[in-house]
Amino acid sequence: MSEWIPDVLGDEFAQRTLELADDHEGPVVATLVRALPTESGWWDRPFGRFRNPLRRRRPLDDVDVLYVHGWSDYFFQKRLARFWTARGARFFALDLRKYGRSLRQGQTPGYITDLSTYDEDIEAALVAMGRGSEGTASGRRLVLLGHSTGGLTLSLWASRHPGAADAVILNSPWLEFQVASVRPLITPMAELQARLRPLEAAPQVDLGFYTRAQQEVADPDDPVDVNLAWRPVQTMAVHAGWFRAILAGHAKVAAGLSIAVPVCVLLSARSATPTRWSADLTSADTVLVVDDIAKAALKLGPTVTVERIDGALHDVFLSRHEAREEAYARLDRWVRGWAAADQT
């Protein structure tokens, strides 16, 4: 495991390369990015051996956050990290193997054949965070934060690792296939294709409208800088082996998971089909059928909150200004309630 070095995001961000086991394409790594809360002022520090009775404790001083990105994506959202560090949490983001900072020459971007493969990435990240591979070797609370495919991956991981996380927050998680009723019908065909030609790529159907929608609603007061080599305008190629892994994950969610800790799911209020460009695509989820995701979310565990945000995009934190502020306000309200209840 390498040392922490400055990250491409600059400012307060650092990164660490996590060495993983080789696969059929050679050496494999994941990359952990971190942002730490600012140091307290002298008035908040202990007096010698004695605790300052006037010290203002931040609500998340004992919290670690682990973020996992979605498909054809990587971590670049500075404001999301600062939301957590401003409240005292340590923020970590994982660029999974073959994505973003972790993509190496000769690798098939994003390719895996089983979502449980990411257990190694997640466990390496937890070790680098000082928590142990199961995430429990720390007195600090752990919040899992996942977007889209990362939300599916973390949901499955949390269900398989009871007691590891203290809360799960999902930003438009890909919990169900876009046409839920079709999934059982196409699964046998997808499994056969994955066995015969796992690296065969499906035709490109993404017209780049989701990227255009993000550009259309970009907020000059909350800018983001995206590396198009790591997050292309059109999504990365979808291979048969990867697609089978996704369908298998959806089937497990449909059968019901067992995440015992509180779960918060943030979603757009509506979906739109991106067959041709229109202004409607700038205020809806053009990737998932959000009503189906909301229903699937109720199968994650016994305590699930679903927050529907009017005007939000697929990544609710990259939406137009009003929807983005609403998303952060909803997240803040949920986190404050969870943090207070979890300490009683």
Report on this structure:
43% of the residues are buried. This protein has a 9-stranded mixed beta sheet with strand order 1-2-3-5-4-6-7-8-9, with helices on both faces. It is globular, with a radius of gyration of 20 Å. 28% of the residues lie in helices and 17% in strands. It is α/β, with parallel strands linked by helices and 344 residues long. The mean pLDDT is 94.
Give the topology, please.
Blueprint: E1 5-6, E2 14-23, E3 26-35, E4 63-68, H1 78-85, E5 90-95, H2 119-128, E6 141-147, H3 149-160, E7 167-171, H4 183-196, H5 209-216, H6 240-255, E8 263-268, H7 290-297, E9 304-309, H8 321-342
Parallel strand pairs: 4-5, 4-6, 6-7, 7-8, 8-9
Antiparallel strand pairs: 1-2, 2-3, 3-5
